[in-house]
Amino acid sequence: MILVTGCCGFIGAQFVRQWLKNVGQPVIGLDALTYAGNIASLFEAHENPKFTFVHGNICDADLVAKLLQKYQPWAIINFAAESHVDRSITGPKIFVDTNVMGTFTLLDEAQRYRESLPAAKRDAFRYLQISTDEVFGSLGENDAPFHEESRYMPNSPYAASKASSDHLVKSFFKTYGFPAMITNCSNNYGPGQFPEKLIPLMITRALANEPLPVYGNGRNKRDWLYVLDHCDAVTQVLFDGEIGESYCIGGESEYRNIDVVETLCDLMDKRLPLANGESYRCLIQFVQDRPGHDWRYATSINKIQQALGWSPKKSFETGLAETVDWYLDNAAWMRDITERQSQNLFGTASVLNKAA
User: Fold this and answer.
1) Per-residue confidence band for 339, with pLDDT thresholds at 50, 70 and 90
2) How many other β-carbons are positioned within 10 Å of the β-carbon of residue 234?
3) Is 299 helix (H, G, I), strand (E, B) or coil?
């Protein structure tokens, strides 16, 4: 069994579903069900007897300790995080609480749990921290992509909190020999992403015939990684990665924000034309840039490609088209996401009693 934290978030939920399908080992999923944690994303998994859901926070040391002792996982994958830069600017404290203190709590309890294991299980135990390329700061137009040895230079409270958690993970490895690894991924996208991130925000606003806000001049660049490609990479690192190492995971798909938005508009024009015959591009509005907006991210996959043989499979063009189609086919998903998040759909109380 493995423990997956943040299992109801965008990437965590996709990972759990893919893991159960392709690997088949049991999963204990832990999630605090904040605004971005969509419990409905795991309906399929909930029907699988190999999946157990627990509603709780990684900052709850007692709960984490009880879960580790009860279920005896051979690995922890920490997807749990506050992740939206804009929210970190207006309310940074929760990012420190979850991303820094939450990671510390997991590490501290996992180290204590690992020391209690018999030798064979102790040697087999693994911890994988899911991080971001934003910890490396911002690139200039002609700079080489980020890589595992890039200097940490975070520019937002979100990036700083993730950088801090990375440093904690590395310190536990160096100090205690704790068997940890880190992955630093580029911007994820795909079906079912909470509509505060660029791609789902533009799609859902276009569906509502609302303005499509683009920061600054729209020329900031990002490397885009299809979420299921990311999940494949995480699985490969967990099984084959080297303890103490970091692995950058990118999509090799670098585009300006305005190019992404215009491509989305063109896809929408073909699939659901506006009644007035205009292009969705007419909805684009440039708005004041956000503070500390990083100019460019690009992520080298040389290490993970050479060491583990992983490369992204989904082209950005194909992945983006499939993402648009998913949102068009699941319009009701957005209407009731808030309601579903607030409901106790998995019988949380009974699961928590079992965990305790």
Assistant:
1) low
2) 25
3) strand
d(CA 262, CA 286): 13
Cα three-residue angle 263-267-329, rounded to 5 degrees: 130
Name the residue among 122, 108, 88, 103 with its Cα closest to residue 6. 103
Prediction pTM value: 0.92
* pLDDT of 86 above 90: no
At 248, is the secondary structure helix, strand, or coil?
strand
Distance of alpha carbon 163 from alpha carbon 179, whole angstroms: 19
* Catalytic annotation, residues: 133-134, 158
Report pLDDT digits (tens) over 252-303.
999 999 999 999 999 999 999 999 999 999 999 999 998 889 999 999 999 9
Owner of token pair 């940490």: 152
Query: Cα(12)–Cα(65) distance, rounded to whole angstroms?
Result: 21
| Beta-strand pair 75-78/187-189 | unpaired
CA distance 191 to 19: 17
**pLDDT-above-70 percentage for the chain:** 94
Per-domain residue ranges for the chain? Answer: 2-190+225-253+298-314+337-355
Query: Hunting for tokens 């990479």 — which residue is that?
Result: 233
CATH 2.30.110.10, domain 2-190+225-253+298-314+337-355, yes or no: no
Distances from the Cα of 311 to the Cα of 229, 239, 299, 337, angstroms: 8, 16, 12, 33
